[in-house]
Amino acid sequence: MKIKSYAGFINRQCVGLQKLKPDIPRITVGLATCGAAVGGTVIFERLKRSIEEQGLDISLIPTGCIGYCREEPIVTITHPGKPLVLLHRVCEDDTDEILRAVASGSVPFDKALCRIEAWDHLMGCTVKYGTGFDQIPLYDEIPFFGRQHKVILRDAGLINPEDVDEFLAVGGYSAAYLALTEMRPNQVLDEVERSGLRGRGGAGFPAGLKWRITKEKKSDKKYIICNADEGDPGAYMNRNEMESDPHMLIEGMILGAYAIGVEEGLIYIRAEYPLAIKRLTCALEQARKSGILGTNIFGSGFSFDIQIATGAGAFVCGESTALIASIEGRTGRPHPRPPRLTDAGLWGKPTDLNNVETWCNVPVIIKNGVDWYTEIGAENNTGTKVFSLVGDVERVGLVEVPLGTSINTIVFDVGNGGAEGKPVKAVQTGGPSGGCIPVRLFDTTVDFESLNAIGSIMGSGGIVVMDEDTNMVDIARYFISFATGESCGKCIPCREGLKHTLLLLNRILAGKGTETDLVTLQDLSETIVATSLCGLGQTAPNPVLTTLAYFREEYDALVKS
Amino acid sequence: MTDEEVCGTKGALNQVTVTINGREYSAEEGEILLGVAIRENVEIPHLCYEASLSPSGACRLCMVGVRKKGKTEMTTSCTLRVTEGLDVVTETPEILRHRKMLLELYLAEAPKSEVIKSLAARYGVTKTRFFKKAEPADPLGNKCVLCGLCVRVCNEIMGGGVISFVNRGPYTVVATPFFGENPICLGCGACAQVCPTHAIEIENPGDERIMTSWGKTRVKLRQCPVCGKYYAPDILAETIYAKITPPLSQQIQDMCPDCRRKYLAKQEVLVKSGDFSGGNNHV
Amino acid sequence: MDEKTLDDIISQYDAPSGRLLGILGEIQNRERYIPRELLEMLSAKLKIPLSHLYSLVTFYSFFSLQPVGDHRVTVCMGTACHVKGAAAILTTLEQLLCLPEGVTEETRSPVTTEDNAFTLEIARCFGACSIAPVLRVDNHLYGYATPDGLPAILEEYGWRKHED
Ligand SMILES: Cc1cc2nc3c(=O)[nH]c(=O)nc-3n(C[C@H](O)[C@H](O)[C@H](O)COP(=O)(O)O)c2cc1C
Ligand code: SF4
Ligand code: FES
Ligand code: FES
């Protein structure tokens, strides 16, 4: 049924709330890709069968991922009037015990990680669960959660991503409703500009400015595109955002389309994310059925729809001009800019391209206002950023903190240092374009400028922790090998330069390198950075350059031996 | 979309003044800087630029320094559009350093190319530190630098789509589909003409043309009914003649250019002398 | 795949954006590779030069021009998996499947066992980095993989240890 009025909107919120807080117990299972792979699916199926067989009055719901991936599979239990209880490291054999406890109005305490009494979904909606089960720690008392500031991940793992009603229940689409019915497009644009929101896809370009440039271009047709290519290996926040809260992305894009004045949007998503594609497709369909996408959204007269285009396995297609080529059915070989996408993008029309997380930031800005938003984060780096904290770290997972948080806080306070207590040696940020940061620089704050200053980049937010056993020359080799395989092959510095960098590193690692090779390595890297056509080549040598700068002794040891 | 929309120079083109290496030149606004340099005989090395084809920016040799607000930024001159007051330098220590490194990479990629060797030598690069490609079965004779001119001329001008880039990264090559014969090849040879390193091989033994580098694609040649010479690919002639209106008469269509010229000259003499019997209105 | 199926797939993609990769992806998913005849048929139907389609399928790693084995084993070589020992997973798989050591990394293209039962390949990142190292068999992901645990996974797909 299409939402055409405020009453209709509120009505659907109530329907959703009834599902989120039913009069019967509710069990959810974290079923994002990661949770599903470590047993979530099996647990869900087992619970489903048992509930049916035993005729239990329990609502069983799939959710996304709450971010504490190390503790998965994660199951939550909510009894009416009681707090939401998070169970961790659940396995298949625990299901009977879970159901027994739930049927008797309790929870399996030995599996409980923490409890949530009330949750602020930030969109003008706090879900009050209730009190009780005091022996279970509160959510904020868990160090992994306590140091985080969830804005983008506010719904992840708590709502059913395949049910638009639950999203509506937690205040979803209320920013879009507000904007479309009460704000002028320019007001929306102004808010985003004043919020200082910067692109989360890597370069940190001001989102509002890019919107304005696109808006001011004269053209019969324009597009907005969401970059969901998430190519950086080791980064998976965009996947989780789409799998756990797909409507948040859609809402952000609706707001952008309204502000810029666009009727057609696209999500370019990598083929390696089948579940995200499935959930997005489902969400788009539900949004259309509810009158949230399509013609005359909310009866406001504004029309907009979103189409999905899938990639086919090419990292370089995250680059803006290659992405366009790919959507248009060509090989993803970048073009020199200008023309920029905002001049001539998809099918030659002005196009605004933003990362998944950039879009996801928009609804909270519109809903809560610029002052609220700019309180979070640092000067010129407002808001939060989601990082995937992976590798040799104790608490692996998705971490959302205000921009300007130090690496120390992320790796040690949230992540609890090296896995199995081993000392941490370095982190690698920004994927293949980023650099390796030694532990002595860990008080560097994570913001666009500070990371650039030490030779790395924010990138999409992957933080790969490496412990003392890691050979940094091997890490450099690993990244160069990755970049060589993903180079499009158009320009020589990247195509040939990276190949020879790889050969040099292989030789050095085999103990056959010389001092001269190190000089060549440095010179070649500098030429690749300076002369490559696109961002891939321009940044691919960063892992070599940073390891040469910060871990020179490891190279020296290899060429001397 | 036209180029004008891209560079935003609608309407009449303005004359502007640009500075290259401290000397002023006049050019049309929106013109490609490399084009201006070529016209004015300012040396900028380049491998992938051709005025009639879309700019590619692949070879990276044409990088120049653009001076703005006291800073010099490197950019490719084949994609740089001229605006009033543009100030560029073609050689700085930095540009030269990178150019030399690129040339070393080219020497490794196309070790058999004399063109590359002499280009490199101009910049004092006679040796490469890098492992040289040595592919005995390379249909392009270890001379291809992947400038993409052949692919562009085939697709953009001839409308052929016979060849394309195959694979990616260091494995990229230019080839026909499945590396085989491509029946849609017109045999026009524009690819070989435009290739800066003379990598593309074509043979003309007797009544056919063999596109040796393109999967040995065979193209039938047309024989001149007058002199008996095999002079042009059959299907290329058909394609071109099909586009000419009004159509040529069959009689002269099959002739080779030499014989046709002779024939037409003869006709003209006849026309002038008042004998209209052999004339053809269509010509 | 017959001509009718191909027509159906083509008609599903009526919007120009994302069309070509969408159609090719569909063919790849159904046939598990891109047969040459289908590529030629597609070229004729869409009036797109075969060279263009060939360029696409050799550029994007999702497409394969060679038929693959009954089961497709994909090892993640992303950063998190690399740090957590993906190399050992790959080498062990090569040994178990009797493939030449190092062949998968070197060729960067799928390799199929002699009996056509398995195809081994590498991927960039499944976005399941939290449970690294990760491998995928057909559509099933396995996290926290260890070399010792691999035979048991392969056995689920009919693999048996060789008696030498
Ligand atoms: C090689 C390469 C890969 C990229 N991959 C991605 C990606 O996976 N996701 C993304 O959002 N941006 C990626 N980018 C950055 C995009 O080109 C673009 O800057 C970004 O999507 C703009 O969105 P934003 O302004 O919201 O950050 C990549 C850039 C390069 C050069
Ligand atoms: S830098 Fe690399 S990926 Fe970018 S255009 Fe050049 S070869 Fe292609
Ligand atoms: S001529 Fe400019 S990059 Fe090749
Ligand atoms: S690095 Fe292997 S799943 Fe991401």
Short description:
The complex is a heterotrimer of chains A (561), B (283) and C (164). Chain A is α/β, with parallel strands linked by helices and 561 residues long. Chain A has 21 helices and 18 strands.
Outline the structure in words.
The complex is a heterotrimer of chains A (561), B (283) and C (164). Helix content of chain A is 43%, strand content 15%. Chain A is globular and about 75 Å long. Chain A has helices spanning 6-20, 33-54, 95-103, 143-146, 164-169, 174-182, 185-195, 207-216, 237-244, 246-260, 274-289, 320-327, 356-374, 407-414, 448-453, 472-486, 492-509, 515-531, 535-539, 542-550, 552-560, and strands at 26-30, 59-63, 75-78, 84-87, 112-116, 118-120, 126-128, 223-228, 264-269, 305-310, 351-355, 377-378, 381-382, 384-391, 397-402, 424-429, 435-438, 462-467. Chain A contains 21 helices and 18 strands. The N and C termini of chain A lie far apart (73 Å). Chain B is an alpha+beta fold and 283 residues long. Helices cover 29% and strands 17% of the residues of chain B. Chain B has nine helices and ten strands. Chain C has 164 residues and is of the alpha+beta class. In chain C, 43% of the residues lie in helices and 12% in strands. The radius of gyration of chain C is 18 Å and the shape is elongated. The chains are: A alpha/beta (561), B alpha+beta (283), C alpha+beta (164). Chains in contact: A-B, A-C, B-C. At the A-C interface, helix 2, strand 10, strand 14, strand 18 and helix 16 of A face helix 2, helix 4 and helix 5 of C. The site of flavin mononucleotide has 23 residues of chain A, from strand 11 and helix 19. Flavin mononucleotide is lined by residues 199-203, 205, 207, 227, 229-231, 316, 318-320, 353-355, 358, 460, 534-536 of chain A.
